[in-house]
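TICKET: design request
STATUS: open
ATTACHED STRUCTURE:
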């Protein structure tokens, strides 16, 4: 059983992330993706970013944790939600954009490459993928939860020729320059 498959893990995460959301990243996303475009969020967690994204775009939320999905659905019965693993993304739907904020570091580098290949398949033509990562040299494992950390060059290698890189920048979430975001075009 994974960290996010228990009420305890989910509660612990929500407490830890209380004062963070992706508002600043979503402003950047809006420069690349027109209003009302369809957006799939991978790893929506408690849905803070989903709420902000929904103000501009047509949102589908997803997570591999049923607990997060059930909790959000209870508060938002009309939300369009899918139970998806960010690696396999098993859906027959397609989207104009795929967004995640601090999710894809929970998978291995190999699986990140698989995820990018799958994202490409379910993006509409010229579709945009937007993702954020922790930036550091050393991977970590916290209570069975993997934190794969990246530098710009390592990330570029994994993106390879799956996408055109429209923008890739270092930013600060908690400690100076601790994060990277990428904007990719199919
Ligand atoms: C940092 S939280 C995301 C928070 C979210 N951006 C928000 O606005 O609150 C990470 C989320 O990724 C999910 N997650 C981790 N690995 C995943 C995977 N392989 N597939 C799908 N979701 C995953 C976790 O269940 C958790 O909800």
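STATUS: resolved
RESOLUTION: sequence designed for all positions
ATTACHED SEQUENCE:
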């Amino acid at each position: 059983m994974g960290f996010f498959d228990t009420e305890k893990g989910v509660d612990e995460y929500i407490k830890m992330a209380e004062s963070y959301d992706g508002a600043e990243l979503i402003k950047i996303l809006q420069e690349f993706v027109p209003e009302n475009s369809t957006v799939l969020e991978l790893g929506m967690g408690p849905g803070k970013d989903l709420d902000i994204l929904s103000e501009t775009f047509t949102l589908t939320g997803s997570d591999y944790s049923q607990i997060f999905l059930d909790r959000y659905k209870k508060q938002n019965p009309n939300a369009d939600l899918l139970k998806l693993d960010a690696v396999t993304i098993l859906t027959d739907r397609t989207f104009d954009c795929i967004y995640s904020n601090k999710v894809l570091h929970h998978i291995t580098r190999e699986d990140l490459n698989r995820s990018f290949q799958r994202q490409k398949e379910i993006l509409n033509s010229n579709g945009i993928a937007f993702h954020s990562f922790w930036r550091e040299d050393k991977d970590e494992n916290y209570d069975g939860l993997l934190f794969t950390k990246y530098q710009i060059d390592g990330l570029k290698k994994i993106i390879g020729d799956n996408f055109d890189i429209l923008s890739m920048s270092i930013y600060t979430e908690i400690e100076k320059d601790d994060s990277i975001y990428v904007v990719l075009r199919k």
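CLOSING REMARK: The mean pLDDT is 94. The longest strand covers residues 123-134.
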